[in-house]
Here is the input.
Amino acid sequence: MGKRLSKETQLKIVKEALAGIKVGALARMYDIHPETIRTWVRDHRDSIPVEEIPLADEHLQEMQRLQEVEQRYEKAVKVLGEKELEIEILRELLKKKDPAYLKNLK
Here is the structure.
């Protein structure tokens, strides 16, 4: 069940979470359950000195860019899903023999 990561790797992930990278993005990147990461953060956040929390280095910038891309993708998928639903409703309306919307036009 799950892979065991070294204490060093766990702390690296905790520091990235404390630096502002979303747990969901870290979970996907490291293939670890988000709740596991949250537990590590709870267990270790008080023992990590502020100066050890990474600033905007290239890795973190890439992670933040990935988060933004994922958010835009999720929004696009939602909009697309709504449009497909609207099209399906319109198709069903067109199939009706005596649709109410045509009576209102007369």
